[in-house]
Design brief:
Radius of gyration of chain B: 26 Å
Number of helices of chain B: 8
CATH class of the largest domain in chain A: Alpha Beta
Number of domains of chain A: 2
Strand content of chain B: under 5%
Number of strands of chain B: 2
Number of domains of chain B: 2
Helix content of chain A: 25-40%
Order of helices and strands of chain B: HHEEHHHHHH
Oligomer: heterodimer
CATH superfamily of the largest domain in chain A: P-loop containing nucleotide triphosphate hydrolases
Structural class of chain B: mainly alpha
Shape of chain A: globular
Largest interface: A-B, 71 and 54 residues
Helix content of chain B: over 70%
Strand content of chain A: 15-25%
Structural class of chain A: alpha/beta
Largest sheet of chain A: 6 strands, mixed
Strand order of the largest sheet of chain B: 1-2
CATH topology of the largest domain in chain A: Rossmann fold
Chain lengths: 552, 297
């Protein structure tokens, strides 16, 4: 049965020439798992909101949306509220109440369920989603992954027939994201709920999806099974976000079936290429002078809490990109805050360019020295437009008017944010916000740039542009330290990687050594090519190695 | 800090608890009989020790004891009624009765203070929400949402402060620049909260907020135990009211302090004593049960 049908749907926001959605027709069968992908700003969110009556934006709408063969906008309010579920991007903003149980009952209260019915449903749901251990907790104390799971469960209480999800995992770490996707699959498989999921982290999603819809500039350019989409969309920029196996297969002009998983990718490599275990890549190994020296750092937030850092040691040089990896709550962000002088270690020593961090007085640390891009780029902005924000920091740095103009122009060219300067920082997409925040941070002209989870919530395209910016800064002699969960990004960009575990930084290695010796904590490309090629930890490296090793 | 959620007494239904606290506090406030006030204070202190431990109580005493004496000695300075003159200060008589009345006032004050402390510890936000949610469902949702926002604001405040500090914004010390930096964080926080509210609003309407016939769910169920407790509280409180109304619990300080009566008054003391010590008894009973269970394992 067809649960949803879009017929020549076209939409534009009031006062805007450009159409946000242009002539989209698609049919979704009941029980399908559909993944919607495309660059930020291609219209995914608009499309999803149009399908949820309560959230439909104002504007000029043409065409038709049919829900169960009836016009969507004529369905009863109660039906729409309960049968069409919506989960958005921000885990925190969607939570309404202070207690987990209250959040779970919220939708049922709105629909006027009786107390006894609510008890029963809440009970079975808490069990199904594994929420029971934190059922009576405050919503505020949950982790990001738990919050998003709660948002999903809260929608599931009124048994929706179709779930619309707008990049629900973009703010989560990879493990929580995988859990969330697994729960979605479980719902789809066991309850037959139809799922329409917009996402840019596609590695685990392609094998799970029944259909993939690809959007570009408001148009639907592909809507088919994942394998078919991978085979048709070959030289499209969107494929930068596809799973590693697909990217490798596409670049090496593979024949037959496109591999989607690591397992299929291995099979493809084994069948088509001669194993070659000699080293292809050599990365920089001699670094400049040490910029950051940490020795035996111990830290905890409060006297009665546990230690977060237990004797961390590290030396980081100018002209290198240093990646600190580690699980959730392993203390990565804390380490960065210590280097930025925002927290003080209770034991141990941190030297910035040979001078103890305590000796930088009156903000000297933040003048042409250390600068940090926090996890949430929004916290950097204080003004009404990006330009004002950049002028604000110029004022703090004491640049003259002319100097400021020059510096801002130069930076906005470098980061290509020229067209964003007059917009409100909060109106930008995640990737754009981050670039503008980075511009502000770079105006302090730091020698040491600290980045906290820079790839959180940005799409593959934005990652590529971040990659080139970071490489440029490194070549200018900056010391770039980034903490991240994103192993793929670390493998592509780092000069050295280190794992923060149990409060200590383990030995720093080149990404090739680091990821090819790791079995579990490593990239898909490395898993796929292990034992076939030597030290190929990124899709690009596998492709390069593959080009040289064709079987006849 | 002990886990207050796990206290025996706080597991009663919010309505039972509210009835109990209101009864005890009203009697404490409207019956100036020293025996009643002593019993009330004792009950409040014992219960608060059960709730937060002796350490917290000892800490409190450092602050409360001087205050107790201050209240006690202030009254005779201003009130010169009473027949038993102790001495003269600046030509004004300081009387034993005024001193006793001061002590009585202090007893009442601290009785109410300790019961309020217990109320604060036992009546957690969800219980209050339940109580106010019945007559005012909208208000209860607004309260619940506000309770969620407060810790969120605190967290965001710290994040924005860190981000701005790392940009070198707060390097100059001093009072004025402190204010300037706080307004800076505050304005960023306001913008952020607008954005966040939009998300929350979307999430609410997506889940059908605003439809007719909204119900209000709670985890509290009125059990037989709770009803029994309410009845017991009301009965004991009624006895105190009878005592006050019949004059058995009347006490006069001026001109001469009345001597405690015997006979019927003792019955009223005992009944009120039972009322005041109920929470402590319930806590102790449970503590003993656990100890007994543990020793059997």
């Amino acid at each position: 049965m067809e649960i949803l049908a879009l017929k020549h749907l076209t939409f534009s926001y009031p006062g805007q020439e450009q159409k946000a959605i242009e002539d989209i027709s698609m049919r979704i069968r009941s029980g399908d798992f559909v993944v919607l992908c495309g660059q930020s700003g291609c219209g995914k969110t608009t499309l999803l909101k149009l399908i949820k009556k309560e959230l439909a934006p104002h504007g000029n709408l043409e065409g038709e949306i049919l829900y169960c063969n009836k016009p969507l906008y004529k369905t009863d309010d109660r039906v729409s509220a309960s049968e069409i579920g919506f989960v958005a991007q921000n885990p925190e903003g969607q939570i309404v109440t202070d207690k987990v149980w209250h959040e779970l009952s919220f939708a049922m209260e709105n629909l006027g369920y009786e107390n006894s019915a609510i008890s029963l449903r809440v009970g079975e749901l808490a069990n199904y989603f594994g929420i029971t251990p934190w059922f009576r907790k405050q919503t505020q104390t949950l982790s990001g992954g738990q919050k998003q799971l709660l948002n999903l469960a809260a929608v599931m209480t009124v048994s929706p027939k179709i779930l619309l999800l707008d990049e629900p995992t973009s703010q989560l770490d990879p493990i929580a994201a995988a859990d969330f996707i697994a729960t979605l699959q479980k719902i789809n498989r066991e309850l037959g709920t139809t799922i329409l999921l917009a996402e840019h982290r596609l590695e685990e999603l392609f094998p799970a999806a029944d259909k993939v819809a690809v959007m570009e500039n408001g148009r639907l350019i592909a809507y088919d099974s994942p394998r078919q989409v991978c085979m048709t969309l070959k030289n499209n920029p969107i494929s930068a976000g596809f799973p590693s196996a697909v990217r490798i297969w596409q670049s090496l002009e593979g024949k037959n079936e496109c591999p989607l998983t690591v397992k299929e990718g291995r099979e493809y490599l084994e069948e088509n290429f001669e194993p070659s275990l000699c080293n292809h890549v050599s990365r920089k190994s001699d670094f400049g002078i040490p910029f950051i020296q940490m020795s035996d750092i111990w830290f905890r937030y409060a006297k009665e809490e546990e230690d977060i850092l237990r004797g961390a040691d590290v030396t980081i040089h100018g002209g290198e990109i240093f990646c600190i990896l580690g699980g959730n709550a392993s203390g990565k962000s804390t380490l960065l805050k210590l280097i930025a002088g925002l927290r003080k270690a209770y034991r141990g020593k941190i030297e910035i360019l040979g001078k103890s961090i305590q000796k930088y007085k009156n903000g000297g640390l933040y003048r042409h020295m250390v600068s940090m891009l926090p996890q949430d780029p929004q916290t950097v902005f204080v003004a009404g437009t990006v330009k004002e924000d950049l002028l604000d920091i110029c004022g703090i740095m004491g640049f003259s008017k002319k100097e400021s103009e020059n510096k801002i122009n130069e930076l906005s060219d470098r980061l290509s944010i020229g067209r964003l300067l007059d917009r409100h920082p909060h109106d930008l997409s995640g990737g754009e916000q981050q670039k503008c925040a980075l511009a502000k941070v770079l105006l302090t002209e730091p020698k040491i740039l600290l980045l906290d989870e820079p790839t959180k919530g940005i799409d593959a395209y934005a990652k590529l542009s971040l990659k080139s910016v970071l490489a440029g800064l490194r070549d200018d002699g900056l010391c770039v330290v980034l903490v991240t969960h994103d192993v793929e990004f670390a493998a592509e960009n780092a000069d050295r990687c280190s794992l923060l575990f149990d409060g200590e930084l383990l030995e720093a290695l080149s990404p090739e050594q680091f990821f090819s010796s790791n079995n579990f904590y490593t990239t898909s490309a490395s898993r796929m090519s292990r034992g076939i090629f030597q030290d190929t930890i990124t899709a690009e490296a596998v492709i390069a190695a593959g080009r040289a090793q064709w079987k006849d | 800090m002990k886990h207050l959620e796990n206290n025996a007494f706080s597991r009663f239904h919010p309505i039972s608890l509210a009835v109990y606290f209101v009864a005890v506090m009203l009697i404490t406030m409207f019956c100036p009989h020293p025996v009643i006030l002593l019993l009330s204070l004792a009950g409040g202190i014992l219960f608060s020790i059960r709730l937060t431990g002796t350490d917290a109580f000892a800490k409190d005493c450092r602050f409360y004891l001087p205050l107790f004496f201050l209240v006690t000695f202030t009254n005779p300075l201003f009130s010169h009624n009473g027949v038993t003159v102790l001495f003269f200060l600046n030509g004004k008589p300081i009387t034993l009765e005024a001193l006793m009345y001061g002590a009585d006032l202090a007893l009442m004050l601290f009785g109410v203070v300790f019961w309020s402390k217990c109320w604060g510890a036992v009546m957690t936000s969800d219980k209050l929400l339940f109580l106010f949610g019945k007559p005012f469902p909208r208000l209860s949702l607004v309260l619940s949402m506000s309770l969620r926002y407060i810790p969120l604001f605190k967290k965001k405040w710290q994040e924005i402060k860190d981000a701005q500090t790392a940009l070198g914004c707060f390097s100059e010390g001093g009072f004025l620049s402190g204010i300037r930096s706080s307004t800076r964080i505050f304005s960023a926080l306001v913008t952020w909260s607008f954005e966040n509210t939009i998300d929350t609003g979307m999430s609410m309407s997506a889940r059908g907020y605003g439809l007719k016939n909204r119900t209000s769910y709670s985890l509290f169920r009125l059990k037989r135990r709770d009803v029994f407790f309410i009845l017991l509280t009301l009965a004991l409180a009624a006895s105190a009211v009878v005592g006050i109304a019949t004059g058995a619990l009347a006490y006069i300080f001026y001109p001469a302090a009345s001597v405690p009566q015997d006979g019927s008054a003792i019955l009223f003391y005992v009944l009120f004593g039972v009322l005041a010590l109920l929470p402590f008894a319930e806590e102790t009973r449970e503590a003993l049960t656990w100890r007994y269970l543990l020793s059997n394992i």
